[in-house]
Specification:
This protein is an alpha/beta fold. The protein folds into 2 domains: 104 residues, Immunoglobulin-like, CATH 2.60.40; 343 residues, TIM Barrel (Alpha-Beta Barrel). The chain is built from 13 helices and 25 strands. It has a 9-stranded mixed sheet, covered by helices on one side. Strand 7 and strand 8 form a beta hairpin. The longest helix is centred in the first third of the chain and has 19 residues.
Length: 514
């Protein structure tokens, strides 16, 4: 404030505001005294904070976090001009980028029918692509939720499970886990978003529950239920109206479902206002005691009227892009804003007691829509950019760095403490701890800078902290995908409080995790 006063004193008078001549020295002395008194008063007055963030780590929200990651499905590879291949150099690029992110949790979905030849089980033909993906997960101890989209295992003509293909699905699971040794597959997701009219089950809960029961029985015959648990109900939600699916799953299927999951594609305004927490809480509250729930897919869609300008801009960008599917692309993945919005959604998910989040999705090259060369643009990159879709598309997009920080520094087994934010509703924060090391993250989704104060009576003072600032003016990158800290070797003592100036649409991460 003193600086502001000095600035006002030294700023020349503007046109039409010249100082009157002949002011006496006594008036000058009086004015100087008043200004000094005001400056002294202001300097002793605490700076107004927009929000206070208090970390209460002795109150545990989640004592065993599974982790965050991304949807990584086998690549389409045929985009209308013949089948392509992923080069060894591109596989290495994928591995290197994933190694920086350190995903703890990957969702990988397939069609069982793709592993059949003339009706017979022939898995080798699809392992050219899926093999390197599962090899990566196995070698890095990444937990995989594997599954079938649903079209192979449901007979849509009779609206009943396709028992023959169900058997093939279990056969494939047994082959991958026991013959190929991919024990990283811990969960199986049968039928994507079964509550949707776009799903193989066409909104039918009884059909989905019947399929789950049959699949579990087939798993038991091979002893797979001891190695892999079923995840569900895997429903897509936008409000609290489908929470009964979770309740009914617990009542009807009991221990046959080992992990609960839902998908959310909220509107920006829903998340940034904090309403998102109220929605997802309704689902977490239905989960039986002793079971966990994760976000099996998460991304943004501009479905609310407040976000109509974003919706129109998203479509305009998709229509202008030569290889974007206009009906299923999120064109704001090129903007830094998408990183802070995803951080906002994740932080609310974490603080509501969910145990992990899988972002939709890793790579544009996985899926097309409308035409073979019209891709679902949702990824961190397009690994076939240089070969097919434009070299710039192969570069990592800004939100990769935001999601990587919140994945890398929330390792599996982390303990999540309670975070209380008072003041500005556009500030969110989380705290995670593992093996005595911690990560603190704060996001500001407002389009204005914010002053915040971090406090904690539970976190002991400690050294060796690094600070990352995610913002388009502050990001420190190196090489293809590396992110460097903005500050290092910091000492953090939140018992005394720490005041921060946050840039608009920015995230700050403090960590002393390795």
């Amino acid at each position: 404030m003193i600086a502001l006063i000095r600035q006002s004193e030294t700023t020349p008078a503007g046109p039409g505001h010249s100082r009157p001549a002949g002011l006496c020295s006594r008036f000058h002395l009086h004015l100087t005294g008043l200004l000094l008194s005001y400056a002294l008063f202001i300097s002793c007055t605490p700076t107004t904070q927009d929000a206070t963030v208090r970390f209460e780590t002795t109150t545990v929200v989640n004592d065993n976090y599974i982790g965050n990651g991304a949807e990584w499905d086998p690549y389409q590879l045929d985009y209308g001009e013949g089948r392509m291949q992923i080069s060894d150099a591109d596989w290495q690029k994928l591995y290197d980028r994933l190694d920086f992110m350190r995903p703890q949790f990957i969702r990988m979905m397939i069609n069982t029918s793709s592993f059949l030849q003339d009706g017979r089980f022939a898995p080798e033909q699809q392992m050219e692509v899926m093999g390197p993906m599962l090899e990566y997960c196995q070698s890095r101890d990444v937990m995989v939720m594997f599954g079938d989209w649903g079209w192979s295992v449901i007979d849509r003509k009779t609206s009943s499970p396709n028992e023959v293909n169900m058997q093939h699905a279990v056969e494939l699971l047994d082959y991958l886990v026991n013959e190929r040794g991919y024990t990283c597959i811990r969960y199986y997701d049968l039928i994507n978003e079964p509550n949707g009219d776009w799903a193989a089950t066409n909104t039918s809960y009884p059909l989905w529950a019947s399929a789950i029961g049959m699949f579990h029985g087939l798993m038991q015959k091979k002893g797979l239920q001891k190695q892999v648990e079923i995840a569900g109900p895997d429903i897509a939600i936008w409000d609290t109206g489908s929470a009964w699916w979770v309740d009914s799953t617990a009542t009807r299927l009991g221990d046959r479902v080992g992990l609960y999951d839902i998908h959310t594609y909220p509107s920006k305004s829903t998340v940034n206002s904090g309403k998102y927490s109220d929605i997802i809480r309704a689902y977490r509250e239905k989960v039986p005691l002793g079971k966990k729930i994760v976000m099996g897919e998460i991304g943004f869609k501009f479905v609310e009227e407040e976000d109509s300008l974003y919706l129109h801009e998203n479509r305009r960008r998709a229509e202008a892009a030569p290889h974007a599917a206009t009906g299923d692309s999120q064109m704001f993945v090129y903007d830094y804003m998408y990183g802070t919005d995803m951080a906002d959604a994740l932080m609310q998910t974490v603080n509501e007691g969910f145990s992990g989040s899988v972002v939709w999705m890793l790579d544009d090259a996985m899926h097309s829509h409308q035409a073979p060369d019209k891709l679902k643009v949702w990824g961190f990159w397009n690994i076939l950019g240089e070969e097919r879709f434009g070299a710039a598309e192969e570069e990592v997009r800004p939100w990769y760095y935001a999601w990587s920080l919140l994945t890398r520094y929330m390792p599996s087994g982390s303990v999540i403490g309670r975070t209380v934010v008072t003041g500005d509703s556009q500030i969110r924060a989380i705290v995670a701890e593992k093996d005595g090391k911690r990560m603190i993250a704060v996001v500001n989704v407002a389009k204005e800078p914010k002053r915040i104060r971090l406090e904690s009576d539970d976190l002991p003072p400690s050294d060796g902290w690094r600070k990352y600032i995610y913002h388009e003016t502050t990001l420190r990158t190196e090489g293809d995908h590396m992110l460097l800290p903005n500050e290092e070797e910091l000492t953090l003592n939140l018992s005394k409080g720490l005041s921060l100036e946050m840039l608009p649409e920015s995230m700050i991460v403090y960590t002393n995790m390795p």
